[in-house]
Automatic annotation (TrEMBL):
Protein name as it appears in the record: Adenylate/guanylate cyclase domain-containing protein
Family per similarity comment: Belongs to the adenylyl cyclase class-3 family.
Lineage: Bacteria, Bacillati, Actinomycetota, Actinomycetes, Mycobacteriales
The organism's place on the tree of life at top rank: Bacteria
PANTHER family the record matches: ADENYLATE CYCLASE, TERMINAL-DIFFERENTIATION SPECIFIC (PTHR43081:SF1), ADENYLATE CYCLASE, TERMINAL-DIFFERENTIATION SPECIFIC-RELATED (PTHR43081)
Guanylate cyclase domain sequence ranges: 172-285
Cross-referenced InterPro entries: A/G_cyclase, Adenylyl/Guanylyl_Cyclase_3/4, Nucleotide_cyclase
Length: 336
């Protein structure tokens, strides 16, 4: 692969991968990994697959490094003393693998585009050594930034309410999605669609974090978020709508959003949220009118005495999983 078209020569990449990312050459078989880590071969294989990597063709294929041995040994410190705890260990590996795979795909695209472009801009044909050095520098910078971001997010997560020590927490759950995104995306070129999605993600993330909430996940044209209380959640939603309206002045194609909120006990599992409250928030998003915020009874009860907000109670609606779902429109109170 040549740097002049934004790609990176494969030989240089292979060398950096082996030396900088894999912790050295591949020198162990799966059987040897099991022996060195003290983890049975079958469990080591399950952990490997759960992390999102293809299984070696056989237990005797030399495919693993010192870092792989250390990782399997680290998982073993979770001390699975029962089938249930072993399943939890595998689930943890799967969640970690999925999150890291998505992050790595973005980082790999960034490196191939940016590094290749910089090398080409310098003029002439860069040597393989120059390519390897550029890749290694980029990897080092991204690794430092990744550690920094993880530490800050860990500090923020630990500072939130985890006093119960259980899997269930009382939270505000919200969804926001772009109205008519599927139809709109059909006639936008890739650059226009990228600008649209980046504006949506940046705008919603700023509103969420600005009121003490946190993003659970972005899925295309939708963001799922959480907040400690209904008041913060309502302000997040109203700020989102206002910010999207402002963005539409610069980007005519920017569609309106609709937001659904629900408050109550939710199951927290590997950074995601589950339960009836989550389902209600999703259903309310689906029936909300463009530019509006709908909340459930739980959130409405928490917001009823908020002097800055007004609630308009709507008729019950029938949605998937709920025969009579009550909803309420939240708006900012107009000052005279």
């Amino acid at each position: 692969m040549c740097c002049t078209d934004g790609m990176i020569e494969s030989g240089g990449l292979t060398a950096v991968v082996e030396q900088s990312l894999l912790g050295g050459p591949r020198r162990y078989t799966r059987t040897q990994v099991a022996e060195l880590s003290g983890v049975p071969v079958d469990r080591a294989r399950k952990l490997w697959v759960a992390l999102g990597f293809p299984a070696a063709a056989s237990d005797d294929e030399v495919a693993f490094t010192d870092n792989d041995v250390a990782a399997v040994r680290a998982f073993a410190t979770l001390n699975p003393t029962s089938v249930a705890s072993e399943h939890s260990q595998i689930a943890a590996a799967r969640t970690l693998g999925q999150a890291m795979a998505r992050l790595a795909e973005w980082q790999a695209d960034l490196i191939t585009r940016e590094i290749g472009g910089h090398l080409a801009a310098d003029g002439g044909e860069p040597t393989p050594e120059a390519r390897r050095e550029a890749i290694a520098r980029a990897i080092a910078v991204l690794a430092d930034l990744q550690d920094y971001a993880w530490q800050r997010h860990m500090a923020a997560a630990l500072s939130r309410s985890h006093e119960s020590g259980g899997a269930t927490r009382q939270l505000l759950v919200g969804f926001a999605d772009m109205v008519g995104y599927t139809r709109l995306s059909r006639h936008l070129d890739p650059d226009e669609l990228t600008e649209l999605l980046e504006t949506f993600e940046a705008t919603t993330t700023e509103a969420i974090t600005g009121h003490g909430g946190w993003v659970i996940k972005n899925v295309g044209d939708e963001v799922m978020f959480a907040a400690e209380n209904a008041r913060d959640g309502a302000r997040i939603a109203l700020d989102m709508n206002a910010a999207i309206s402002r963005a539409a002045q610069a980007i005519p194609e920017m569609p309106q959003i609709r937001v659904g909120l629900a408050y109550g006990p939710v199951l927290t599992r590997f950074g995601d949220l589950y339960g009836t409250v989550v389902n209600i928030a999703a259903r309310l998003t689906g029936v909300a009118r463009p530019g509006t915020v709908l909340v459930d009874d739980g959130a409405a009860a928490e917001l009823d005495d908020d002097a800055d907000l007004t609630l308009r109670h709507l008729r019950s609606v029938r949605v998937k999983g709920f025969s009579r779902l009550r909803s309420h429109v939240v708006r900012e109170r107009k000052r005279r």
